[in-house]
Design brief:
mainly alpha, 4 helices
């Protein structure tokens, strides 16, 4: 018989951490998006290449806010799936179809979040440079983003493997 107590204790802590982050993270983005809409010029700090005094219209500020809010959605979705996964682990449920689907969903959402971490700053720079003497198009891909993307891909593959393992487990239980 295996000892699940360590998994259950760690999962209880991670449950609360993921739950808190899933609530706090969108609020932080909402506050910053609201600040950008009420003070459009403050958004120029996002694009240091732009000349000081480049005009930022309310429409540009609204678009940047919208992009920021949409960009946080995959991360929040991943955190919410983590909450469900950790709740199940905390309850001692380890190999189940629900957990496998949660891991797969976490991997997919984190892959999307990694993609957004490249696309969103690029889009924000382009939006904020509309009224600049020269438009700015800058795409940045760093080691952290690549590592994040690889880890998200790994979770996705593990999720697929877990879905298959849960299916085989359910099939085997049907024979007993």
């Amino acid at each position: 018989m295996s000892d699940l107590s360590r998994l259950q204790r760690l999962s209880a802590q991670l449950y609360w951490g993921a739950l808190a982050l899933s609530v706090v993270l969108p609020l932080i983005v909402l506050v910053y998006a609201g600040r950008g809409v009420t003070e459009p010029a403050s958004l120029l700090s996002l694009v240091p290449e732009l000349p000081a005094g480049t005009p930022v219209s309310p429409a540009q500020a609204g678009l940047v806010a919208g992009v920021s809010l949409v960009a946080v959605l995959p991360l929040v979705a991943a955190l919410r799936r983590m909450v469900r996964l950790f709740a199940n682990y905390r309850a001692g449920e380890v190999l189940s179809a629900e957990n496998a689907e949660a891991i797969l969903g976490i991997g997919r959402n984190l892959s999307l979040a990694a993609l957004f971490s490249v696309l969103v700053p690029t889009l924000e720079r382009l939006i904020l440079s509309w009224h600049a003497p020269r438009r700015v198009l800058s795409i940045a891909l760093d080691d952290g983003t690549l590592g994040f993307l690889i880890a998200a891909g790994l979770l996705t593959v593990i999720g697929w493997a877990m879905v298959e393992a849960a299916r085989v487990k359910a099939e085997n239980e049907g024979f007993v």
